[in-house]
From TrEMBL:
CDD domains, per database record: ABC_Mj1267_LivG_branched (cd03219)
Pfam families in UniProt: ABC_tran, BCA_ABC_TP_C
Keywords: ATP-binding, Cell membrane, Membrane, Nucleotide-binding, Transport
Protein name from the UniProt record: ABC transporter ATP-binding protein
PROSITE patterns: ABC_TRANSPORTER_2 (PS50893)
UniProt entry tagged with the keyword Metal-binding: no
Domain of life: Bacteria
Length: 279
């Protein structure tokens, strides 16, 4: 994979959160409102994401977290507000366009091809990068063959990085849940995204699996320079790995800042302790 240039201390617009450097704003969500019929999923939400940042979105069930990720990757179009991505006002972008522009995501419920091997699942993440036409691919001839070899090499690099060499030929459906989540991360990484959206990457994992996943998220961010936006319910994980945290409740933003700032925010404490959110 292409390694990111290390962030220079004297670059303009470089910020430090918890000792790690983040760059200028890469994604700016301004006054986003989204409803489904009478249900207001998001009301006037604004926050930004800096390059190379690990940005968490937290909040009780039904707070609007997944809807927010779906707005970022073009699955939902908000009725109000604007999205500025890499300095450009993004209009009418669907999820294909978002993926093409460098935004990849994983899902709350694993969305892999269970009968296919780990390697083949990760290869599906390269689809957008494939340039040779269908006929050449079918004939497996010339440029198509060279291209496929290059894509496979990239996938093997990801497999090594995620330490899943031993299961590369195993059908995904036979793997334990924690490893399936890791394969899903691998598929998203295969697209070489600039921004990676992770929807509850640790859900359903045991402590050891969570530790592994945390390490991989930090390594992806560190070694490839990938900006990460994640939804996570495990507060220990969120507070440990995030640079900044945005807190939603009933579709409204009630907190935004460093883990320490958010931890001390009375509205956040009330949302988590005052209601029956179950967290
Ligand atoms: N496709 C949809 N159609 C109708 N209502 C929806 C849809 N998607 C989300 N909602 C509603 O929008 C609100 C926010 O839901 P969302 O799934 O974004 O919350 P969440 O914070 O991700 O919750 P959870 O932690 O339970 O995953 C909820 O009231 C939900 O019922």
């Amino acid at each position: 994979m292409t390694e990111a240039k290390p962030m220079q201390m004297n670059e303009p617009d470089v910020h430090f959160h918890g000792g790690r450097a983040t760059g200028p704003v890469i994604l700016d969500l301004r006054n986003i409102s989204l409803s489904f019929g009478g249900v207001k999923a998001l009301t006037d939400i604004s926050f930004d994401v800096r390059q190379h940042e690990i940005r968490a979105i937290i909040g009780p069930n039904g707070a609007g977290k997944s809807s927010m990720l779906n707005v970022i990757n073009g699955v939902y179009r908000p009725q109000q507000g604007e999205i500025v991505y890499r300095g450009q006002h993004r209009k009418n972008m669907d999820c294909y366009g978002a993926a093409k522009s460098g935004i990849a995501r994983t899902f709350q419920n694993i969305a892999l091809f269970k009968g296919m091997t780990v390697l083949d699942n990760i290869m599906t993440g390269r689809n957008l990068k494939m340039t040779s036409n269908f006929l050449l691919q079918a004939l497996y001839w010339g440029p198509a063959r060279r291209e496929e070899i290059a894509h496979r090499r990239k996938c093997e690099e990801i497999i090594d990085f995620l330490e899943i060499q031993h299961i590369r030929k195993t059908p995904v459906g036979r793997l334990p849940y924690g490893l399936q989540k890791r394969v899903e991360l691998g598929r998203a990484l295969a697209a070489e995204p600039e921004i990676l959206l992770l929807d509850e990457p640790m859900a359903g994992m045991n402590v050891e699996e969570k530790q592994d996943m945390c390490r991989f998220i930090l390594d992806v961010n560190d070694q490839f320079g990938t900006t990460i936006v994640l939804i996570e319910h495990d507060m220990g994980v969120v507070m440990d790995i995030s640079d900044r945290v945005v807190v939603l409740d009933y579709g409204c933003k009630i907190g935004d800042g460093t883990p320490d700032e958010v931890r001390g925010n009375p509205d956040v404490i009330k949302a988590y302790l005052g209601g029956d959110s179950g967290h």
